[in-house]
Design goal:
single chain, alpha+beta, four-stranded antiparallel beta sheet, 1 helix
């Protein structure tokens, strides 16, 4: 009885557990961090980050402020064309 439990039931339970837990995972892309230059507080992170690229013609904005890829505010981000 003990051998049949470990040979049949335990692997079946492990497979069912793996299948059921695979539905609990999500595949979402994490936005890269972005920063804006606040007039009083200085460089501040954009909540939620940004998915804007570093090339383009129109600046990516957070409210009225352009956003940057680094805290030093030297790499501007642009809207995808």
């Amino acid at each position: 009885m003990k051998k049949s439990f470990f040979k049949i039931i335990l692997p079946a339970f492990a497979i069912l557990m793996a299948i059921s837990l695979s539905f609990a995972t999500t595949s979402e892309e994490v936005a890269s961090p972005a920063y804006y230059d606040h007039p009083v507080l200085g460089a501040q992170p954009v909540p939620g980050g940004s998915d804007c690229p570093q090339t383009g013609t129109i600046e990516c904005m957070y409210g009225e402020f352009p956003i940057y890829a680094d805290e030093g505010l030297s790499i501007k981000l642009f809207i995808r064309n």
